[in-house]
Known about the structure:
Chains A, B: GO terms for molecular function: heme binding; molybdenum ion binding; molybdopterin cofactor binding; sulfite dehydrogenase activity; sulfite oxidase activity. By secondary structure, chain A is of the alpha+beta class. Helix content of chain A is about 10%, strand content about 25%.
Amino acid sequence: MDHRPGTTSRRGFMRAGLAASVALPAAASMARGQGTPDPLITEVQDWARYSGDGVDATPYGLPIQFESDVIRRNVSWLTADTISSINFTPIHQLDGTITPAGCAFERHHSGAIELAKPDYRLMVNGLVDRELVFTYADLERFPRRQGVYFCECAANTGMEWAGAQLNGSQFTHGMIHNMEYVGVPLKTLLAEAGVKPEGRWIYVEGADASSNGRSIPLEKAMDDVMVAFKANGEALRKEHGYPARLVVPGWEGNLWVKWLRRIEVTAGPVESREETSKYTDTLANGVSRKWTWVMDAKSVVTAPSPQVGITHGPGPLVITGLAWSGRGTITRVDVSVDGGRNWTTARLAQPGVPMAMTRFYLDHLWDGEEMLLQSRAVDETGYVQPTKNALREIRGENSIYHNNGIQTWWIKKDGSAENVEVS
Amino acid sequence: MDHRPGTTSRRGFMRAGLAASVALPAAASMARGQGTPDPLITEVQDWARYSGDGVDATPYGLPIQFESDVIRRNVSWLTADTISSINFTPIHQLDGTITPAGCAFERHHSGAIELAKPDYRLMVNGLVDRELVFTYADLERFPRRQGVYFCECAANTGMEWAGAQLNGSQFTHGMIHNMEYVGVPLKTLLAEAGVKPEGRWIYVEGADASSNGRSIPLEKAMDDVMVAFKANGEALRKEHGYPARLVVPGWEGNLWVKWLRRIEVTAGPVESREETSKYTDTLANGVSRKWTWVMDAKSVVTAPSPQVGITHGPGPLVITGLAWSGRGTITRVDVSVDGGRNWTTARLAQPGVPMAMTRFYLDHLWDGEEMLLQSRAVDETGYVQPTKNALREIRGENSIYHNNGIQTWWIKKDGSAENVEVS
């Protein structure tokens, strides 16, 4: 075969084209188009004939037009308006672990505000030796830390308490993102102010109209919480709290206060609206559990799933999904194709990262029959993700938050999928 | 202090505002604005008075308008046109390790082409048991792998062979990105085709007009090379090779063929234009080194640097940068503020990740005097990043590629910075 630098032998292409076959691992090898010339191989295409875009075309790039359906989506009937609402990450279309900022879920209580760095102030007050106000430029002068963490809304999967509701992993499990955050440890700022001995909690507020105030025990505040200003390398997006937000690893997203404006050191919790009438878990007897901050181990098969069914016949099928735990690393994920009767341990794409998403894969040989597809996460504490019914037995059906039950997708013979429950 | 759920006591804000001071670690504490009311604290601002954007405002989001200067840039005089050129990642403005796809460097040989998934074909031919053509849908059925890798152009820092040329880390070191790739191991596809015993190399080509053909030893191809279709969770961007590119961990970016269309198994290297007249290193005596694929350990201080000088007076200063090695993990980075006379070991933000970028920080107490700022990376093989002059002694000054010498920024008393060399 003749190789001319920078070009390809057309003769070579044609010869190969005539021999073209689609190959897949042994058991499912499908001789498709064998012997039929494929014009995409035998003909020189326009993209090989003409030059493309120059490097000045997109100083800041967006996804290619063909991916215009990989977007955040909201559910109009879920909330009364869009300024106090949620949109969902298209987890069914993503792979790997990092969530691109452009389609990472948002939850606002009074809309995403625009707050320039020169206008930013962060106050630390209350039970401190000296009350302080930091500018954005001040924050940049403190020692920084970096870490990949998931941020999950406590209400993620919340509709499913009432049974299978929303048809797609984007909607059942998409109130989550996983980004690499950089910021200043909160303990550094608190040390600067000097926490008085009677200070046992902090109360954190955002600069938006809702203020979204929440109480956090000082122990957590002095552990791994940080005031972050970068996500996935770049400045936080407006909708993620630009220029600075709180990152509270492993704990519910509502605590990750955006446009962070104030941290008050207090003797006790404030019992704000956001931690009394909201973000508590009402049990069957009407009593509400509160301070349910930690997101327990959870997982979901992202594909195949209702929005991304199987588009090919029997044979090799990549079953993939995400797992995460607010209590540390994911150590194992099991997958069932028969509604939880039999389990196969999936392959983790990387060793578990504490309080970050882990990608799992199961390389399955699909027989073309129906499946009841489930995944079950295990974390480093030994905790095993429970079934939805096991959760209901303990918590009743009045809850909105903290539904980490096992999800089931009914995969049909035609490859389409549906959200179902198995008893 | 009175806490009303969802709001903030205005009285509390005013009191704190009167006591406001800017705090920084002990030695540099600057009492700025003490006793002067700050309207950003004492007055209720518009962003706390009115609602912001709803969750339907940006299905796919972009950076906030204030960050409009965080973009890829090209250098017009560097190449004759923009379709065969480079743009540079704004590494001086980023933090952490992940490069957002929107501003991750590009290098094209005939422009970025638009190739839809249904039009995509990948041929494997040459010394194989059966020549194969894969569609994009076929690729999705093979077992996947995930990994964060840096992709560095061999010409990164290439202008600096002639002495300090370009004024900013974006331009001296920005021909690089670091993304989380997901794809199919190339060895899986080659195994499907069956490599004949006489096959010792592969020749890889892109679907663009340049085809950008390169030879890779089979040993590397069967090791960690992958055919990737996702970067940072989502589909590759058009300019990064949508829908599929080669990922060749630790090796020069030119081998990471975009819009990958063909892999030919060959007995020997092809000696294409891209590996004879280009991507070789011409020594002082006119002889060229070839097959210089591996990117040796390298680092750069990203900030402060010429494009992002110090904007404050003496006191705490975060010195930060990036380090990477094509031979494995970064184990140590040293920083000098006096042009290499004395070195302090920097703090790595995370343990080194093989063939991925590592972020380092040095929390420095700046005395307000001039600095000659340098960083020096050490990798797991014990290799120490050399000075530029040490490289020139061995390689002469005819080279374009593989300049991994230590970079120096001259930080002036006014905080501005300049690209210089020290002898």
